[in-house]
């Protein structure tokens, strides 16, 4: 019986580890997207997100920033690529970002084009109809 019990424990442990491994693989393949409006809500100490090069980082638990919390708070909840690059962060800081990566910024639709395309389409159809009716 103790052998069976040991086998069950090992099987349960392997099953749990396998499930965790597959969950990790699936989650790493799924990409999360955030709008800038969503990012903007995370702009205070303890809930602090940054956008750098189109990627969203949750730096809420980044306690070791050499410049303290102030630069993070100043750029919290917004696009911060320019500020990040102007400071001259090195390779180490850029590698450190990977730890805080949570997703990408969702590209906004170009609203002007969405409205303009149907208007152009209707105009072309109207001109085509007028030419057709003149020939008839």
List keywords for this structure.
136 residues; alpha+beta; 5 strands; 57% helix
Strand residue content: 5-15%
In DSSP terms, counting alpha (H) and pi (I) runs of 4 or more, how many helices?
6
The residue-averaged pLDDT reads 77
Order of helices and strands: HEHEEEHHHEH
Class inferred from helices and paired strands: alpha+beta
What distance lies between the first and last C-alpha atoms, to the nearest angstrom?
96 Å
Measured as a percent range, the helix fraction is 55-70%
Tell how many strands the DSSP assignment holds: 5
- Trace the largest sheet across and list its strands: 1-5-4-3-2
The shape, in one word, is rod-shaped
Radius of gyration (Å): 26 Å
Poorly predicted parts: 1-16, 109-114
The largest pleated sheet is described as: 5 strands, mixed
Reconstruct the topology from this structure:
Layout: H1 2-29, E1 33-34, H2 36-40, E2 43-44, E3 47-52, E4 55-58, H3 70-75, H4 81-87, H5 91-97, E5 101-105, H6 111-135
Parallel strand pairs: 1-5
Antiparallel strand pairs: 2-3, 3-4, 4-5
């Amino acid at each position: 019986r103790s052998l069976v019990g040991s086998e069950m424990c090992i099987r349960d442990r392997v099953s749990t580890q396998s499930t965790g491994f597959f969950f990790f693989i699936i989650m790493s393949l799924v990409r999360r997207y955030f709008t800038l409006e969503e990012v903007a809500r995370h702009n205070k100490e303890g809930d602090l997100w940054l956008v750098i090069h189109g990627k969203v980082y949750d730096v809420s638990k980044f306690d070791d920033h050499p410049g303290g919390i102030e630069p993070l708070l100043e750029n919290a909840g917004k696009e911060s690529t320019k500020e990040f690059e102007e400071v001259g962060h090195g390779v180490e800081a850029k590698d450190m970002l990977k730890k805080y990566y949570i997703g990408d910024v969702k590209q906004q639709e170009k609203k002007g084009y969405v409205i303009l395309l149907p208007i152009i389409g209707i105009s072309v159809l109207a001109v085509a109809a007028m030419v057709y009716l003149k020939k008839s």
